[in-house]
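Usage

Read records sequentially. Each one opens with the input sequence:
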Amino acid sequence: MTTKTQPMSAEPTGVLLMAYGGPASLDEVEPYVMDVRGGRPLSPKILEEIKDRYRRVGGRSPLLEITQSQAIAIEEALTRRGVSNRTFVGMRHWYPYIKDAVRAIADSGLDRVVAICMAPHYSNVSVGAYFSQYQAALRDLDVGFKTVYVNSWHDNADLIQAFADRVTEALALFSPAERRGLVAVFTAHSLPLPRLTPDDPYDGQQRETAALVAKRARLENWSFAYQSQGYSQEPWLGPRVEEKLRELAGAGVPAVLIIPTGFVCDHIEVLYDVDIAFRELAQSLGIHLERTRSLNDDPLFIKAVAGTIRLALSASVFAQLNEKDKESAT
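and closes with the structure output:
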């Protein structure tokens, strides 16, 4: 006998997936960087350096296409689990902006939304900024949604398993001798220290994810470092990956596996910072460096996001079954 999943509610929900954004061509790099910097210009030298990074990874960011693919898969996964939904994509710093997604949600006639960032770890500087932009869009467009905010999902069991599976897969890239001396380095995007409040959970959540993945993947030798610091002169969260690689080289470590658990898909910080810059530095230090594949639209990752959204709906006031739904579920 087949049991059909009962819907959580007959009323459909808008799911807003938010990501950072990225240029679709080299011509878009300069206006994109200006958007990220709030209109503050960069020197021509640094701007050309950034353009060259995109040039070396194919001349564009794949982030939008990956996020759209994630959105399709998440919508389907939620539907299979009884959640009537439509999923939308909004970018913080490029097209389609979060405001564009809010407008599309309003045009669709939906009046309730789950807002989730494709970044599992919370900081007011990062995820909080996405939520602020979403709230500003609501005000600018004069629309009001009943909204559930997913702050973090860094310890989701399926997310941890998805990362651990990537670790197991990547270890096969090293020889048996290299694996015996290998050190795994978990990485995440650094944030500027002066902008973090004393109780900001970002650093703790990043390190907790790393510890959970290391335990699940049975890694004995591992450490944690931050990458992709900005161009400002203020201090950033550390240690830096570059410092960590030099430290490991000095200790005679022959091989390093980079595990970017602070990122869930391919974009410039992975495709250039890890695959090119860190690999070139490691090679110069005599270290064999590899990284785990990004999660992108991996089915277990999609399950993790869909499960997180469903849990948020279950815990929210607007997602409680009405009396008719309760009767049909019994």
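Summary fields computed downstream for this record:
- Confidence is low (pLDDT under 50) at residues 1-7, 319-330.
- The domain at 13-22+61-152+298-329 is CATH 3.40.50.1400 (Rossmann fold).
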